[in-house]
Amino acid sequence: MLLLCSTTFPLLYTAQGANYVASVMNRTAGGLSFLDRQFKLNTREDAEELAKEIEACPDLIYLELRGNTIGIEAGKRIAEALEKHPELKYALWSDLFTGRLKNEIPPILRSMCSSMMRVGTHLTELDLSDNAFGPIGAEGIQDFLCSPSAFDLKTLRLNNNGLGAGGVIIANCLLTAHHNAAAAGKRFALKTFVAGRNRLEDPGAVALARAFKTLGSLEEITIPQNGIRKDGIEALAGSLRFNANLRVINFNDNTCTRNGAMAISFSLGDLAQLEVLDLGDCLCRANGTTAILAVLVSRQFPKLREVNLSGNELPAVVIKHVLSTWQKRLGSTKLRVTNNGFGGEFTDLAEEIEQRGLEEIIDLGNESDDEGTASEEEDDDAEESDEEDNTSRQGSEEEDKGEYQSLPCVDKHDLTAALAGLSVHRATPAPAAPPAAAAAAAAGPFELSFLDQQQKFEVEADAKGVAAALAAHPEVTSFVLRGNTLGIGAGERIAQALEHCPNLKECNWSDLFTGRLRSEIPIIVKRLCAAMIKAGVQLRSLDLSDNAFGPIGAESIQEFLESDSAFSLEELRLNNCGLGAGAVTVANSLLTLNNRAIAAGRRLNLKVIVAGRNRLEIPGALAFAKAIGEIGTLEELTVHQNGIHRPGVIGLAEGVAKNPGMKRLSIADNVGGWEGALEFAKALPNLQQLESADFSDCLSKDKGCKALVQAAVRLPQLRVLNLSGSELTAPVAEQIVKLWSRGRGDEAILNISTNNLSDEFGRIRDLADELGGQVDVGESDDDCGSLSGSEADEEEDIEHENVDEDEASEGKMYSDEEVDEEDYYEDEEEEEYYDDEGEW
Ligand SMILES: *[C@@H]1O[C@H](CO)[C@@H](O)[C@H](O)[C@H]1NC(C)=O
Ligand SMILES: *[C@@H]1O[C@H](CO)[C@@H](O)[C@H](O)[C@H]1NC(C)=O
Ligand SMILES: *[C@@H]1O[C@H](CO)[C@@H](O)[C@H](O)[C@H]1NC(C)=O
Ligand SMILES: *[C@@H]1O[C@H](CO)[C@@H](O)[C@H](O)[C@H]1NC(C)=O
Ligand SMILES: *[C@@H]1O[C@H](CO)[C@@H](O)[C@H](O)[C@H]1NC(C)=O
Ligand SMILES: *[C@@H]1O[C@H](CO)[C@@H](O)[C@H](O)[C@H]1NC(C)=O
Ligand SMILES: *[C@@H]1O[C@H](CO)[C@@H](O)[C@H](O)[C@H]1NC(C)=O
Ligand SMILES: *[C@@H]1O[C@H](CO)[C@@H](O)[C@H](O)[C@H]1NC(C)=O
Ligand SMILES: CC(=O)N[C@H]1CO[C@H](CO)[C@@H](O)[C@@H]1O
After folding, report:
1. Do 295 and 320 have their domain in common?
2. Quick one: pLDDT at residue 446?
3. Which positions make up the signal peptide (predicted)?
4. Residue 430 lies inside a defined structural domain of this protein
5. Taking the model in full, what pTM does it have?
6. Structure confidence at residue 17 (pLDDT)
């Protein structure tokens, strides 16, 4: 079988589309080629010989007719011949109507297409390039493109057809094919779309963008020279990221301007398969190009071979910016930047490129082709007018102004500033989605991530970029700021932008306030939360872990946690926040939320609460216990290392027992004692879904451990029970090793390392090995056999209290807090938002 669409060909990249030559020349399967035979077939008789040959062909996988010309009657005869060949896959019918009248062509196309439809041909490739059939040609193939015969189409080549308004028809056909295929239980997965030189303009581009977004299967989009302007490019740009397998993007000789280029840059980060990006002669200008280059050098594009930014009126500085990073990040990927506006800096730039040994990689072209010093961008949009027709432009200029005015916090001039560190990511369910789900997937998750960029967003201006990114993506569903630090001014700016993001589902705002004053943090958190309420989000996940905001931090999320926007909350992560007494506030808010939801006829679906290392102690634990007992939908509760003593742990056990869906439980490193363990042992039979239970370092003692093991051996889903550090002694250890090994015939692990097996350690380890090895007894060095004898539980509790206090006074839990004024200002000093000199 021939592999025309396969990537095994060296990628040949031409204006006809990538792989065009390979697809035309490399045939290993059956078929017929009449390439360039210059047949001029008018009548049936004229076509008879050719038709006979077609009919006689035993296995017609491809039929190439390029370079001949056929009329209506001849077309009918060929159509008849096609009826003998339902196996046809490649209809290579470019340049087939030279000298024909425009209105002759649609009937010919229609008769040939009808034959294929009638006999159930399923084409893989249809090539009608270089047939100047104009808009009505689109009508000629409309029925075919919407029919089952097109469901398997992978490649559609319509280069240089003068489609014009016909572009919208073609785009709508693609959508229809998608829906019809889905209805028939199939997936219409077009990979290659080529339609250069067709005057598609903005309406065609917008319609195609809609289709591409829905299809999600495109690997090549080659649409150079179509008079597409900013609006069309922006629409197309928005569709790109839905097609995660894109290899070739060729928008050469359309008009992106800065905004179109920005929009493209936002999509690029998701296109890890990209091989060719051709934006030559697209007027991306300095700032648009900067955005694109910033994304290219900051993300992984392992397959990228060619980036064409020639003819974009670029000043030298834009290229200088990437000289230091290009090769490091993109290897030998070719960067073409001929015919730009380097002016007097051409020689200088050329020298630097030579010094860095990049002359093979970065193509500056011939100095005589350089178009002189490019102007700086102030008058960018006014300048747009050195192009083509001016009616549509006036419209778009007005829109330019209006668009950003409607978004209060975004100054369009700020877009570039941020792109240095921006990472935009769309999760990619689209290509694999079954047909029925494809439409839903098209509106799927969209992540805006600034993860771990260590940026200091202090004042409003620092957050311009983040705000602009949000404004450009009001559809954002996931917003990650973790690993930066946010001040009040910057927080305000981001909050304003968030107000326009109603689809937000996930906020990962953990570790976001390093070096902040404790009094600042609640103000910022509160403002961000208010913005989400205003936007009317239905949040699924909120992660504020590792922000040492202390008790008053709890108050800052109170309003949000009690609002309608939290009804949908599934995950609340507040690990290591120094909540202390604030834990009661948080727990009570959850209780209030639950009551409000019930009153509103809804039911909460809170699945995950993570609040380790917060000094919840007894009051916090009891408050959470009450809340989760009422909510009842928990699947994970993590409250390790919280200084919770027995009454608190007992309370938690009662609350947990009312959450039959519980899967992961960590009570580790609290002072539950054997009473706490007994209470949990009572709860375990209710938790048939439980997968892991961590009671390490809880002083469960022999009594508690034995009860927990007795209950746990019966839990069908359990994978791990952790009883390390329980002060378990040898006789009972022996019993539970036997209980576990005999009670569970599966892979589930019981961890009893770091206990008090003392002299018996070796014997018990051997026993555990002998019985199947699913009990981890740990290392003898870790066994605490040397610890002194059995003290009263009360005393042990006191001992642990002391330990807790020690930790606290060491500042272990609150390490980020208590920052004094001096530190704060020092940190801030001269910290730059991004490195202007080029290293992104
Ligand atoms: C034709 O295809 C075969 C395998 O599909 C490949 O090995 C060969 O190099 C190709 N020839 C050309 C001229 O592309
Ligand atoms: C790159 O863009 C320029 C300007 O549009 C164009 O002339 C050239 O053919 C394009 N492609 C390559 C491979 O240079
Ligand atoms: C640059 O262009 C000029 C004039 O078109 C030509 O004479 C010269 O040879 C070209 N130089 C190179 C390096 O291509
Ligand atoms: C361009 O617009 C101006 C002002 O609206 C008008 O006078 C002129 O005729 C237009 N030119 C073309 C070529 O449409
Ligand atoms: C937030 O990001 C951190 C770091 O990537 C990750 O470990 C954590 O799981 C994330 N939180 C959520 C709720 O996804
Ligand atoms: C058991 O608990 C100890 C101490 O908390 C921890 O280091 C270990 O990773 C845990 N093991 C498992 C399997 O959960
Ligand atoms: C059991 O816990 C110890 C620490 O107490 C840990 O080192 C070990 O990896 C755990 N065993 C398993 C099987 O996870
Ligand atoms: C450890 O076990 C031994 C005997 O098995 C016992 O005498 C001793 O009191 C235990 N120590 C602790 C800390 O439980
Ligand atoms: C608003 C903005 O960022 N403008 C920039 C566009 O690009 C030029 C040249 O790189 C800069 O000087 C401007 O500051």
Report:
1. yes
2. 82
3. 1-17
4. no
5. 0.50
6. 54
